[in-house]
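Good morning N.,

You mentioned wanting to compare the apo and holo forms, so I went ahead and generated the holo version with S-adenosylmethionine. This is what I fed in:
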Amino acid sequence: MVRPKEENEPWRNFYGRLKGKSLRDSQKRYLDQDLAALSPGAVDWDVNPDRNPLDLSALFEDRDVWLEVGFGGGEHMVHQAASYPDVGIIGCEPYINGVAMLLGKIRDAGVSNLRVFPGDVRQMFDVLQPASISRAFLLYPDPWPKQRHHRRRFVTEEHLVPLAKSMKPGAIFRVATDIPSYVKQTLREVPKFGFKRIRDAEADLTTPWDDWISTRYEQKALREDRQPHYMTFERV
Ligand SMILES: C[S@@+](CC[C@H](N)C(=O)[O-])C[C@H]1O[C@@H](n2cnc3c(N)ncnc32)[C@H](O)[C@@H]1O
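and this is what came out, ligand included:
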């Protein structure tokens, strides 16, 4: 059911899947037992209609804070959290089955330096302090392959303006995709909104980052013979 909009709440269509296969009992248990403790604070409109910013220092003290947009099953987020215990990572993902998968992985890995918002990253952008994020990941975003749907992609003004605002000067934005037209759109659009491309040799486009772990969607792309691309930008 679609929740009625709060007064003044901006209208935001969400085009993805919120719920897929039914959850296993263990996944329901993770959601019941673990999700609340991993909350980054009041993000949704109904609990924070004044859009008060999150207190990131209360969450992570003075650690750098990273953001993963659409973490899917969460393998990359948990890998980064385990690899960089001195960083705090916030992940946003509205697909509840993905959130449940992440929670299982967090239990297995025993990492504690992450927080989970089970919703749309645009809600998160509203409540992030300007210049508070040191690194952001956009990994295999929804491809929207039809030309007339390219305006729904993440690499558009609607998302890139608030993303840029939330990031510190010098912060890093990583994008991975297997869709050639998404590569083109990313390389064209991201630099228009306060980022410059780094790690920009032609070979870099197909060379994963040193601390990369392949995600579920990348595995699917590889099985279907599509070439992954990796793009890196710096907030200027
Ligand atoms: C193609 S999947 C990739 C998942 C994962 N990053 C991977 O590489 O396996 C794209 C994900 O982005 C999520 N997504 C789409 N729009 C989003 C939004 N506005 N905010 C947060 N996540 C979003 C979808 O729910 C989906 O899980």
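The longest helix spans residues 96-109.

Happy to go through it together on a call whenever suits you.

Best,
F.
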